[in-house]
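[stage:ingest] chain + small molecule (zinc ion)
[stage:ingest] validated
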Amino acid sequence: MTTLRTSLIASVSAVAVSVTLAAPALAAVPAPPKPPIPMPSTVDVPMSYQGQSRCDPTTKPGAAALAELLSRHYSRPSYGTVRACLSDVSEHYDGRAVDWMLDVNDPADKAIADAVTKWLTERDSRGNYGSWARRFGLMYVIWNRKVWKSYRDIGTWQPYTGSHPHTDHIHFSFAWDGACKRTSWWTGRAVTSINTNGCSTPQVTVATEFTPVKDIVLRLGSTGSAVRLAQSNLPGVAVDGEYGPLTQSAVRSFQSRYGLTVTGNVGRAVWNKMEQLQYPLIKFRKTVILKKGDTGNAVKKAQWALRMPKTGVFDDRMFQRVRQVENKYGLKPNGVIGPLTWAALDEELRARMRMTEASAELERVVEGALADQRS
Ligand SMILES: [Zn+2]
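[stage:predict] done
[stage:export] tokens:
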């Protein structure tokens, strides 16, 4: 008995010693980065929750800038930002999230991650919670089974119960002000009222890409940019700017499918139909103005674009939604649907169509990969 216990203790301490010897001395974690410009004494307001709602997987400037800053400063260059849109909600789908790859099982990585998450979220000398996180416009941060939210629990770290423990990366989600570099770290001015607009206000005009080509007639042998535009609106046709027999045949099918005179040439009727498919509300732009109290089919169409119940009654709730969309597109937010607001509603529909297409495309890719695995 005694012998056994002694030998166990001996082997345990031998293991402990060898671990101590094998572990390299941890390099000191660098001091946090310094702001590029003088900071105002005011800290940006804590950001509200602004969940992803658009499919726009391009990295936003504030997200890219923090990822660059941290990965260089701490010499940990590996991070990811955007992903192809799926049906769940993730700021990786609208360019407002960063995954900075640090491994909780690597002591040096863990020391950096712990130091950075502490620095971002601790109180400053004036008692502001999460002051650095707020200066970057962070909405929430997840690391090692814990989550910090700017908008809940007064900025304290709480257990994270999502399916992924986040032990191999820190996740950063930015509010729009942070994602678009409107916060004090970058501007020197604290955000005092939250702005949920995107980074560049999308522009809408009454004209479309079809407007300048409507007088052009295309036929076998035509070449150029108008041919490209037509081809990009014909299913299964290569966009090469050469109006060959395949394009002609696709035009015939298009005309027949939509009840147009079958000529094999692209003229005004074909252009109009292509435009209508791309901009479902186009016919209202020059003919219908809607305001609160109006009723009817055009109201239903607008409600469809606004993702509201199609009651056909322009009520106060709809008025508020119309003003939101007008704001988003930099239009005068008067709650009246005139030509430009119709154009903005079309953009809303088109963004959703692109999102649906992107998701369908991804599903096809995933299906293909699964089929490959099976075969
Ligand atoms: Zn992430």
